[in-house]
Structure formats: structure tokens, C-alpha cells
Amino acid sequence: MRIHHPGCPKKTCLTIAARVSAKDWKDLKLGTAVGIELQNYIRHSLTDYDELLRSKMMTRDEAWAYIAPQVAETLRTWRKPGVKLRLVRHGGKRTLN
Fold it and tell me: What predicted TM-score, i.e. pTM, was given to this entire model?
């Protein structure tokens, strides 16, 4: 998560890790499982998807299509690092700054 989605909030990373760990993903690779849980988390926690379904304003497919750009944008944002670190040499040793 921290490598592929460095902009993802730490609390969200922990939530996703717990969700992935709690399920039997059969033959899916870890990255696929993480991707599925990330999209599920974003859809249900950061969009109006559930409200659209509850209000019966849209079908499941319509609601999914409506919020899909928000999910994609959130994932795109999380792929960007939140903080940039650089290596600096101090007396022959490398440290993060």
C-alpha cells in the first residue's frame, strides 16, 4: 500500500490491510485483493453511493457509474506521494530529510 498508494491516509491503509487479511481471497494475488478493497472502501466511505441506493434514485449500476469518476480520482490522488523524502549525505551516512 505505501509503495503503490503513498498518498493514501495511514488510517485507511490500516483499514484496508485489516479487510484484506480478514478474507480468503482464494487464487487472487495480493495486489488484486488490495485493489478490490480500496475501491470498495472509497465507494462506500467516500462517495454518495450508498445514499443513492437507499434513496432509490438510481439502480446499482447507475449509482456505480455515477460515482466511478470519484473512485478513479481518489485512487489517482493516492498514487501520488503525500510527502517527498530525499536522501542526504551527512559525514558519509545517508539519512532521510
Answer: 0.77
